[in-house]
Design a protein that fits this description.
Length: 328
Amino acid sequence: MSNVVISTRVRLARNLKGYPFPCKLSRQGREEVIEKVRDAVKNGNSVLADDFSYLKMSEVDPRHCVSLVEKRLVSPEFISETEGRALLLSSDESLSIMLNEEDHIRLQVITKGLSLEQAYDTADKLDTLLDERLEFAFDEKLGYLTQCPTNLGTGMRASVMLHLPALEKSRAISRIAGNLSKLGLTIRGAHGEGTEPKGALYQLSNQVTLGISEQAAIENLKNITAQLVAQEEQARERLCKSIDVQDTIARSLGILKYAVVISHDEALKLLSNVRLGVVSGQITDITTDMIDKLMTDVEPATLSVNTGKNLSPNERDIERAKLIREKL
């Protein structure tokens, strides 16, 4: 399924008992929450404790903040107001804990490919580590209490990042989205709610958190993902027999290998075409891992951060083309 499923993410929302939600929390209260959670991670009985770095968001360079969003490590909302917010981030960036976003704690785990059970197991262990030293806001009937009622209950959102070029080209996505909503799932752009899909990248996630267990939600998402993967693979098989599609893939690779200037949107579109060529066997000397990494590295802020330069839009387009040429 790795040809279709790029990554898996499990996120848990938690709040500390005795503190208002972040939107009603004083500056001192926010600092107290940060210190309590930081202490719980740092002094927790786990090998994970030493692996986290601490970022006080008000001291983080704006480009770096946006890059964190581009890499799906934090939400756009989290960087919209940095005062009284902090991030705990593991060295390999697979674990992150947002402090004082919509909830006191937004804990998330990102893994490669389809690995919902593995991602949830890691998130659950980190949740248990925090629970040993903190007291979460919890109600016997409602479960974990969260600022937004849609997160009540488990407080868990699980999602998979999918590459769906064939279903997108056949215009089946809108029909699929309608059917998914009836099953308690939603499909959106790669960066979640309110974002448009680019490079045929979509995020499929659970919507229901109340009255359902974490295991049931994960099993439901896993089953629907398997069905979507099967539909995409069938559509790809038909699509890639077309000489026009084969030509589009070949031309996309040619442009990426030799372009001197390339915009963000064009890069994602062409990389998506090349990824389809890789998984269909038309392109044999490039891996999906390389393309997946490039799809993140060509993002505007991430490109600037990685080059260590404050680039203008035109300079970014030149630098992006250079990066792609070197990698391919």
